[in-house]
Design brief:
By secondary structure, this protein is of the alpha/beta class. Helix content is 39%, strand content 20%. The longest helix is centred in the N-terminal third of the chain and has 17 residues, at 2-18.
Length: 335
């Protein structure tokens, strides 16, 4: 009997030691894929908010297409998002056809632009070709890509559709058509993509990342790579889905064989989104901490160096959370 009581008391003490302080808010933040910019940004923002507001924030992995689902279900209170995908989830548009999601709001945006990266091994036969050649002519490349649930995959499927590889409404056909002529896809996190590239398990990598991407820098340390430019017709095709002209500036990846060139691409900014179930007071507090500490935010990730709190209420893809709106109006930025 005594042993049973002792074990019970021990378990209770352990539980209490791991619990947040009394009255402390608990919040789940949906981040990104391991090795990507959103992972770094989410953890950095969470650390800032813990320090300044005393909130207990748990960051969980996520992705561009996955996070709106987590937020709408209430599985996360705050998370990273793409304006286009957040708006699509709210309206029930592609890739959420038939799954219209209510309750998606924004806290801060117009930040951390993500850019498409398509790089290949410099010693491979693909280094002297183009994206038109590789994808348009269905070359049998071994390509590392992200797992479903990410904006990378959604964007990849738009690219494959541009080259006629997809059956409308059947994304899986995009890959099967290419696999039927010898292409192979390795799905994994950004860190796993970099490792596969360094270990010569793939010929190239496709990813959608903030600049500079840690995983691309890591990949270039172990194997020479060439960044492939996006052809203008492909960029124009992607513009129909909300992607803007973008570029990987020269010098972004010093060890790339074409590091001295600016690489045309396409991209889109990021939004810190929230569930409508997040209380106005909590939304206000989070928005205030982020925007009252711009110097700290700028240091979290290089892609945040130009983040401007005065324009953070713009280009969210979804309506402002009332709590965030109160903050921007108090500052006089939102009239």
């Amino acid at each position: 009997m005594a042993r049973t009581v002792l074990l019970g008391l021990t378990a209770l003490l352990l539980a209490l030691s791991d619990a947040p302080a009394a009255g402390q808010e608990q919040l789940t933040w949906a981040g990104g894929v391991a090795g990507g910019g959103w992972e770094t940004i989410s953890n950095g923002m969470a650390a800032l908010i813990r320090e300044k507001a005393g909130l207990n924030i748990r960051v969980v992995p996520g992705g561009g297409t996955q996070n709106p689902v987590l937020l709408s279900r209430g599985d996360a209170g705050v998370g990273m998002g793409m304006p286009l995908l957040l708006g699509a989830a709210l309206a029930g548009d592609d890739p959420y056809v038939g799954r219209k999601m209510d309750g998606l709001l924004g806290l801060a945006g117009n930040m951390s632009p993500n850019v498409f990266h398509f790089y290949v091994a410099a010693e491979s036969r693909f280094a002297a070709t183009t994206i038109d050649e590789i994808v348009g002519r269905r070359r049998p490349i071994r390509l590392a890509i992200s797992r479903p649930g990410t904006a990378d995959v959604w964007g990849m499927e738009k690219i494959l559709a541009h080259y006629g590889l997809c059956t409308p409404g059947k994304p899986s056909d995009c890959y099967r058509a290419w696999e039927s002529v010898g292409a192979k896809f390795l799905r994994g996190s950004y860190a796993e993509q970099a490792a596969a590239f360094r270990n010569h398990k793939v010929d190239g990598v496709f990813a959608f990342l903030a600049l500079p991407a840690a995983s691309v820098l890591e990949a270039s340390e172990g194997r020479r790579l060439r960044l492939l430019p996006f052809p203008k017709p492909l960029v124009e095709s992607l513009a129909r889905f909300g992607f803007a002209d973008g570029a990987i500036p020269r010098g972004t990846y010093p060890k790339a064989v074409n590091a001295d060139e600016a690489i045309p691409s396409a991209g889109m900014g990021s939004t810190i989104a929230a569930s409508a179930s997040l209380s106005p007071d909590l939304a206000y507090l989070i928005t205030k901490v982020i925007n009252d500490n711009p110097d700290r935010v700028h240091r979290i990730h290089p892609s945040l160096a130009d983040y401007d709190p005065a324009s953070a209420y713009q280009h969210l893809g979804v309506p402002l959370h009332p709590g965030a709106e109160r903050y921007y109006r108090e500052k006089g930025w939102l009239k």
